[in-house]
Write a structure and sequence with these properties.
Length: about 150
């Protein structure tokens, strides 16, 4: 005796459920976004760069860096009428590149590259003439001192 069973399970995709909910939320919030005026904003962030890309330790210039990079960052923004001040500060941290410009015609051994943290400050002072039209003064400052060590 053989039993055969045919079951059907309804299939829902994330898009079919989420899209109408997102669209409904945007429609409800549109009025609040249009009326919103910036005052003071404070934010934090973390940038992470993975060691991706092609890397050849025998070449001085490469597409990849063969090391991780991290930048915790703090941002501040304040508006006074049509003037807006934005300021960001953070510090880049780097892991060691154990195969920096090694095993080549100029140097047959292995050397590593390490780098001190890089302090970064970025500032913008802008004036808004009308929506999507502004002028801005910008400043970017970086401070560091790289090291290259032979093993």
């Amino acid at each position: 005796m053989e039993l055969k069973c045919k079951c059907t399970v309804p299939v829902f995709s994330i898009r079919s459920i989420a899209f109408p909910l997102i669209l409904r939320a945007v429609r409800r919030a549109r009025g609040r976004f249009v009326k919103w005026e910036q005052k003071k904003l404070l934010g934090v962030g973390l940038k992470v760069i993975a060691p991706t890309g092609q890397y050849d330790p025998a070449k001085l210039i490469n597409w990849g860096t063969n090391r991780w990079s991290f930048k915790p960052e703090l941002g501040y923004s304040q508006a006074w009428g049509k003037w807006v001040l934005d300021a960001y500060t953070g510090v880049w941290f780097f892991t060691k590149n154990p195969e920096f410009w090694s095993h080549n015609v100029n140097y047959h051994g292995t050397r590593s590259q390490s780098q001190n943290p890089v302090a970064a400050f970025e500032g913008h002072l802008s004036y808004d003439f009308k929506p999507r039209l502004w002028v801005s003064l910008n400043r970017l400052t970086l401070a560091s001192e790289p090291r290259c060590q032979s093993r």
